[in-house]
Specification:
The complex is a heterotrimer of chains A (407), B (250) and C (289).
Chain A (H helix, E strand, L loop, with lengths): L1 H8 L6 H14 L18 H26 L8 H16 L5 H23 L4 H22 L1 H4 L5 E2 L15 H24 L1 H11 L1 H6 L4 H27 L1 E2 L6 H14 L6 H20 L2 H4 L3 H7 L2 H15 L3 H10 L29 H5 L26
Antiparallel strand pairs in A: 1-2
Chain B lengths: L9 H4 L2 E12 L2 E12 L3 E5 L6 H8 L6 E6 L2 E2 L5 H6 L2 E4 L11 H8 L6 H10 L1 H5 L10 H13 L5 E5 L7 H15 L4 E4 L3 H7 E8 L2 E7 H5 L2 H8 L8
Parallel strand pairs in B: 3-8, 3-9, 6-7, 7-8
Antiparallel strand pairs in B: 1-2, 1-4, 4-5, 9-10
Helix pairs in contact in B: 4-7, 7-8
Chain C lengths: L1 H31 L6 H19 L1 H28 L6 H23 L4 E2 L4 H4 L1 E4 L2 E4 H23 L1 H11 L1 H6 L4 H27 L1 E2 L3 H15 L5 H21 L3 H17 L9
Antiparallel strand pairs in C: 1-4, 2-3
Helix pairs in contact in C: 1-6, 1-7, 1-9, 1-10, 1-11, 2-3, 2-4, 2-9, 2-10, 3-9, 6-7, 6-9, 10-11, 11-12
The chains are: A mainly alpha (407), B alpha/beta (250), C mainly alpha (289).
């Protein structure tokens, strides 16, 4: 155990970039492997079914880290994030199916539309204070959802969704044999998201965003405009989400209205909090676990273990959302820093208490807590913040970033 | 840490009603109070002084339990640290915050009603109206439409409805015209005859008229403790601690 | 003309539902700073429990039983939530919200497990299933009942808030919770009461929604919740009258816009919300100082 921790803290593994490269290398190699994890996966890693499952996990991980940029890093709580995924997915599908454009052009157009939408929507919504912003995003998300489901069924396929015209999809990406290629595209998407978010986080705008999460007034005092930085985070996250929508489209072979539902955005929130908001790997871990759980829950619920339980217990346990919601509540209560927070706490060598909640005080985005006056608002908003960049590298992650003890 | 040893003062002769020992408060990651210790006598006015931002309001809020803190806060022998605010208030500590804390959407009468002790207390109301006749006059008016001075009177009137044993008053004359400030100060002086007050003030002429003891804070620590008169009649000391050349407003 | 009456009646009927759900949300947010995402679950609970009672008892008796059951179950669920979930997290505002999000996902799933995913039909007693002649238009009776109940709640809440000590505490607490505690008042009891009251109204809304639709399904609460949130924000959290006006505005705008073109209703609500927020430029957390 000692040698491992030494390797972790001081050897070549101490660099986060080396670790990240290692993880991605392993992920890249998976489709070549015939290894199996029975019980967890239905077959060896190179089986199409397993790769499809993993690919979806990777897309969710990418979506989650994009959302984390907004929520965990900048403290902006958007309840309409799913609409950007929807935009990427549906814009591409509609352009391919109805306007006859090629796949890549349509995808690029989809990203462009999402970019414009993010700037416009963010521009308008961020002008209002925390709660107002959250509600505007919620309302917009709902409007998009209704539009997709019932507004224009010929265009969007309504409740059933719309399949992607398969002749537009390049041969290398169609067919079960080529699931590995789709898997690699999903991995590439995750890599792009991770690079963007990690890179941004380490840069000056990223530091400003983290400062915004803690105390917007301090940022203003420095002469910086919080609005612009929040808009930047919002736009980047939106475009990344649209990209995810496109990859998801390729994986599914069609567009589905489930990504427009408010529950989908809430599940992004769940992924981020479950994994650990504002941390390097938190959202990714959360996304992968959620992706796995949502697709394989039938296995758990259909398993003999659950079937053997009395009806009263079995019913709820067979509902994926129940398990998810309950797990979420438990995490909030007992592991506020998410999984990544727990792991960081375990690998840390004797540092302080660390995370109160890994999620941000979010005074800006979610606007929790009365005003910004001296009415004890600070005492009440009570979330400790742990800067994401230090988790996982051991060391004093629980440092002076402010641990507020609840009395 | 400049703690000036003091000559015999009211603080050391009468029993201390409120005793702060090594009070530390940290907010949003920054430490505001670095170990504040002083006591408030059970008689008279103890002034809490200091420049802007040294932690006077923070101290007051910590006493009321509005900010979490470490250290000891003993009120008449009871430890306040860890108690919820409403329980602390119930022990008999009345609080008038810096922004007055008047409920703007409620009427004057409703503001008072909130603060009244169980069982009403017409006698208490009479006391308050005697001190501040304007409150009876404007009873049905929305508190948010009152002038600054009237709101201040309402805020003070509120805590007089109960039999409080200590009043913590934060900058009552702030933003008031000299005439109104004098009225408020006069009323407080009357009140101080029957109940001790921990008074935070920047207006030194007000402090001069009523304070027996003075505690001066500087960047989260106690810089001076002693008789108020002695402090205020020493221009060099006043200048060093409070940054004023005359005993006027800071 | 008949179209106008019908649209207005339907719009007001929706407004009534929104008000029932939003009033509790508004008070909860104004007093406790909690965005209660579990509120929709209280609506769904009220709907299902109400439906079960109506199903068992049948007829008009079943109807009144359903409404009462809706109120009771909503209040109970809300009270439990406040005690078990909200209160322990009292200094962790964000975690409170997140916990309600979890509940908001788990409870409808639980209801689905018990009652099934398909909508359960609610058969209305004869007199309720009909229509009423109103200036030449045939307005479904249910709409009028909804409006009546909502108006009744509005009046009751106003009275409660302005005439009782508890109401006084809530009104003050919405403005400045800290100061209320500094006056020696334990706001936690007000918290529990407001939560329970909000839950009761939500449960009632759930039962009425079931009557309105002629069915109950697990997702009922969530669909109402989003509009209720919009109403809360528009109406200035903590103000009951404001919430009422906002509910009417949203309900009418949605109905009239929907009539112009399907799905335009929701888009226009969004535009309305954005416009009002931009023009208002006031801090939405608590009353203006």
């Amino acid at each position: 155990m000692n040698r491992v921790t030494m390797l972790w803290a001081r050897g070549p593994l101490a660099s986060r970039w080396v670790r990240a490269a290692l993880v991605f290398a392993v992920l890249y190699a998976l489709p070549y492997s015939t290894a199996q994890i029975p019980g967890v996966f239905d077959g060896p890693f190179d089986a199409p079914g397993v790769l499809q499952l993993l690919a979806v996990c990777l897309v969710f991980a990418g979506l989650a880290i994009g959302y984390d940029l907004l929520f965990g890093h900048t403290g902006v709580m958007s309840f309409g994030h799913g609409m950007f995924v929807t935009t990427g997915m549906y814009a591409t599908t509609i352009l391919v199916d109805h306007a006859g454009y090629g796949l890549w052009i349509s995808a690029a157009a989809g990203l462009g539309i999402a970019l414009v939408a993010a700037v416009v929507l963010g521009g308008v919504a961020l002008r209002v204070g925390g709660i107002g912003f959250a509600m505007v995003t919620l309302a917009f998300g709902q409007a998009v959802s209704i539009f997709v489901v019932s507004g224009s069924p010929q265009l969007t396929g309504g409740e059933q969704g719309q399949t992607l015209n398969s002749s537009a999809v390049p041969a290398a990406l169609s067919g079960v044999r080529n699931t590995a290629n789709l898997y690699w595209i999903a991995l590439a998407y995750l890599a792009v998201c991770a690079l963007v978010v990690w890179g941004l986080s380490a840069s000056m705008p990223g530091r400003v965003m983290r400062a915004l999460r803690e105390n917007e007034r301090r940022v203003e005092v420095l002469g910086l405009n919080p609005y612009l930085f929040k808009l930047l985070a919002f736009t980047v996250a939106g475009v990344l989400a649209a990209g995810g929508g496109i990859v998801y489209l390729l994986l599914l072979g069609g567009a589905t209205p489930t990504v427009a539902d408010s529950n989908f955005t809430l599940s992004l929130l769940v992924m981020v909090v479950l994994g650990g908001a504002g941390r390097r790997w938190g959202a990714i871990v959360g996304g992968i676990i959620y992706g796995y759980a949502s697709q394989s829950l039938t296995r758990v619920s259909g398993s003999s273990a659950v079937a053997g339980l009395p009806g009263v217990l079995r019913g709820p346990l067979e509902q994926p959302l129940f398990l998810l919601g309950a797990a979420f509540v438990l995490v909030v209560f007992f592991a506020p820093g998410g999984l990544a927070g727990r792991i960081a706490a375990m690998t840390r060598t004797g540092a302080g208490i660390g995370a109160g909640t890994g999620a941000a005080a979010a005074r800006t985005g979610a606007g929790i807590g009365k005003g910004a006056t001296g009415r004890g608002a600070e005492a009440v908003s009570g979330a400790a913040t742990v800067t994401g960049a230090t988790a996982g590298t051991g060391g004093a992650a629980g440092s002076g970033a402010g641990t507020k003890e609840a009395r | 840490m400049n703690e000036t040893a003091t000559a015999a003062t009211a603080a050391t002769t009468s029993a201390a009603l409120l005793e702060l020992t090594d009070l530390r408060v940290s907010l949003g990651g920054s430490a505001i109070l670095h170990g504040v210790s002083f006591s408030v006598a059970s008689v008279g006015v103890t002034a809490l002084l200091g420049r802007n931002g040294v932690g006077k309001t923070t101290t007051a809020k910590a006493v009321l339990g509005l900010y979490p803190s470490t250290g000891s806060l003993r009120f008449d022998g009871r430890e306040l640290n860890g108690m919820p605010t409403h329980a602390i208030a119930r022990l008999g500590i009345g609080y008038v915050p810096e922004d007055r804390g008047v409920f703007a959407a409620l009427t004057v009468a409703e503001n008072l009603r909130l603060a009244e002790p169980r069982g009403g207390g017409a006698a208490a109301y009479e006391r308050v109206y005697e001190l501040f006749p304007v409150l009876r006059l404007r009873a049905g008016q929305q508190a948010g439409t009152l002038s600054g001075g009237e709101q201040q009177m309402l805020a003070i009137g509120r805590i007089l409805l109960r039999r409080n044993r200590l009043l913590v008053v934060d900058e009552p004359t702030k933003g008031l015209s000299p005439k109104v400030a004098a009225e408020v100060a006069h009323a407080l002086k009357e009140v101080a005859r029957s109940v001790p007050i921990l008074l935070i003030e920047q207006n030194l002429s007000v402090v001069r008229t009523m304070a027996a003891d003075a505690v001066v804070l500087d960047t989260g620590r106690v810089a001076h403790r002693g008789a108020a008169r002695a402090l205020l009649s020493d221009p060099a000391l006043t200048n060093r601690l409070l940054g004023v050349s005359q005993a006027g407003a800071a | 003309m008949t179209t106008v009456i019908l649209l207005t009646a339907t719009g007001l009927g929706l407004a009534a539902l929104y008000f029932l759900v939003a009033s509790g949300l508004s008070l909860i947010f104004g007093l406790m700073d909690v965005l209660n995402f579990a509120h929709g679950a209280f609506v769904a609970i009220g709907g299902y429990v109400g439906w079960t009672v109506a199903d068992q008892l049948g007829g008009t008796l079943g109807l009144f039983g359903a409404l009462l059951a809706g109120i009771a179950s909503g209040a109970a669920a809300a009270f439990l939530t406040e005690q078990v979930i909200i209160r322990p997290l009292y200094r962790r505002k964000l975690d409170q919200v997140l916990a309600t999000v979890g509940l908001g996902l788990a409870i409808p799933a639980l209801l689905q497990a018990i009652w099934g995913a398909d909508a359960r039909t609610w058969v209305l007693p004869g007199w309720l299933a009909g229509t009423v002649q109103l200036a030449g238009a045939r307005v479904p009776t249910v709409r009028l009942v909804l409006i009546g109940v909502a108006v009744g709640l509005l009046v009751a809440l106003r009275l409660l808030l302005t005439r009782s000590r508890a109401g006084l505490i809530v009104r003050a607490g919405v403005e400045d919770r800290e100061m209320v505690t500094a006056l020696g008042i334990d706001v936690r009891r007000a918290n529990a009461a407001v939560f329970a009251l909000g839950g009761a109204a939500a449960g009632l809304a759930g039962a009425l929604f079931g009557l309105y639709q002629g069915s109950v399904s697990p997702g009922d609460g969530t669909s109402l919740l989003i509009y209720a949130f919009v109403v809360v924000v528009l109406g200035d959290a903590g103000s009951i009258t404001g919430t009422a006006y906002a509910a009417v505005a949203v309900g009418l705008v949605q109905q009239y816009a929907d009539y112009a073109s399907a799905s335009l209703g929701d888009e226009s609500v969004v535009v309305l919300l954005a416009a009002v927020l931009l023009l208002r430029r006031r801090n939405l957390q608590g009353r203006p100082a």
